[in-house]
């Protein structure tokens, strides 16, 4: 009898625990967001702010080796949209901002010395970073380029593709060395190689607290209008760069839309995205992202509104 009573008590206890867990948004009700590291602080800010308005709905950053089936939202760059399964009509992408990519090297390095005073236009940047039979001879004429080692990212979430596409190239055409893992490792590679040159997203280049370039990095000089020269130098601030890029295109700077790939059938996810477009984009500048053009932003907000209306 004691054994039977213990078993009944255990079953009841498990049942109560499960009911409590479901009612309090534990893992059974968590929505997971997959995000590259350069945008993760922004996503974490969204999650914490949204929780204040919707405490019963829990979102978390996906960590470790979670399978794609466990991911409810994925932060993606516009050039990755072509990689999606176009037959999968259960998912769509809504854009919330833009990311910009600048060429960099280590401060006070040999590469920085070789490139000092040079203001590279799009053609020269293409020659510096890419292998191409059409301009191999031109590259040889630029002595400063001869010994420089290019480091590019190879991770699926790397901004390497964004940078390459800006110059009409594919990521496979980078010369030099490929670095696997997160793009922050590109910064690390530059610290180890005095001849190294690379590129990175603004949030990986600038200190988000003091808004200045990270102390161990230097921007590769690019050819911009005279009134923008200071902004794109080592003395420029993150906010000056963001303002310049939002006011006009700079052909030497890769800028690409960034968004969230999501399951349109999940109403809770839809409401989260609606909140992001209405309230979360005000944090874009804080975390190194550009805002969308107003008309584009309005179109993205309408996309979410239509999705939620269709669910009713």
Largest sheet: 9 strands, mixed
Percent in helix? 25-40%
Instruction: Identify the overall geometry.
Output: elongated
Kindly name the structural category. alpha/beta
Secondary structure tally, helices: 11
Helix and strand pattern: HEHEEEHHHEHEHEHEHEHH
The beta-strand count equals 9
Residue ranges: pLDDT <50 for 5 or more in a row? 4-27
Strand content range: 15-25%
What are its keywords?
nine-stranded mixed β-sheet, 312 residues, single chain, alpha/beta
Question: Can you describe this structure?
Answer:
Helices cover 37% and strands 18% of the residues. With 312 residues, it is of the alpha/beta class. Strands 1, 2, 3, 4, 5, 6, 7, 8 and 9 form a 9-stranded mixed beta sheet that branches. Strand 5 (149-153), helix 6 (160-166) and strand 6 form a beta-alpha-beta unit. The longest helix has 22 residues, at 2-23. The protein is elongated.
Per-chain topology:
Layout: H1 2-23, E1 30-34, H2 40-53, E2 58-61, E3 73-77, E4 91-106, H3 110-115, H4 122-129, H5 136-141, E5 149-153, H6 160-166, E6 177-179, H7 184-192, E7 196-201, H8 202-205, E8 217-219, H9 238-247, E9 254-263, H10 267-278, H11 294-311
Parallel strand pairs: 1-2, 1-3, 5-6, 5-7
Antiparallel strand pairs: 3-9, 4-7, 4-8, 4-9
Concise account of the structure shown:
The chain is an alpha/beta fold and 312 residues long. 37% of the residues lie in helices and 18% in strands.
């Amino acid at each position: 009898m004691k054994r039977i009573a213990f078993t009944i008590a255990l079953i009841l206890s498990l049942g109560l625990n499960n009911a409590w867990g479901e009612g309090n948004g534990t893992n059974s009700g968590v929505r997971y967001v997959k995000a590259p590291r350069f945008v993760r602080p922004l996503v974490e800010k969204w999650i914490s702010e949204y929780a204040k308005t919707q405490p019963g709905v829990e979102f978390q950053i996906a960590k470790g080796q979670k399978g794609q089936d466990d991911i409810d939202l994925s932060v993606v760059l516009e050039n990755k949209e072509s990689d999606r399964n176009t037959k999968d009509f259960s998912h769509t992408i809504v854009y919330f901002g833009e990311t910009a990519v600048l060429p960099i090297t280590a401060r006070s390095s040999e590469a920085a010395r070789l490139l000092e005073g040079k203001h590279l236009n799009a053609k020269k940047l293409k020659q510096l970073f890419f292998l191409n039979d059409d301009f191999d001879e031109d590259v040889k004429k630029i002595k400063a380029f001869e010994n420089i080692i290019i480091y590019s990212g190879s991770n699926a979430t790397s901004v390497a593709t964004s940078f390459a596409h800006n110059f009409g190239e594919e990521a496979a055409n980078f010369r030099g060395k490929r670095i696997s893992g997160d793009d922050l490792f590109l910064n690390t590679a530059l610290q180890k190689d005095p001849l190294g040159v690379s590129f990175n997203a603004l949030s990986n280049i600038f200190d988000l607290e003091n808004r200045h370039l990270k102390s161990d990095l230097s921007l590769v000089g690019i050819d911009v209008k005279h009134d923008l020269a200071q902004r794109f130098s080592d003395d420029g601030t993150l906010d000056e760069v963001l303002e310049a890029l939002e006011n006009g295109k700079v052909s030497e700077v890769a800028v690409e839309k960034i968004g969230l790939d999501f399951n349109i059938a999940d109403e809770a996810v839809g409401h989260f995205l609606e909140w992001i477009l209405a309230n979360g984009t005000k944090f874009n500048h804080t975390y190194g992202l550009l805002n969308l053009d107003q008309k584009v932003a309005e179109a993205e907000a309408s996309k979410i509104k239509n999705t939620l209306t269709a669910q009713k």
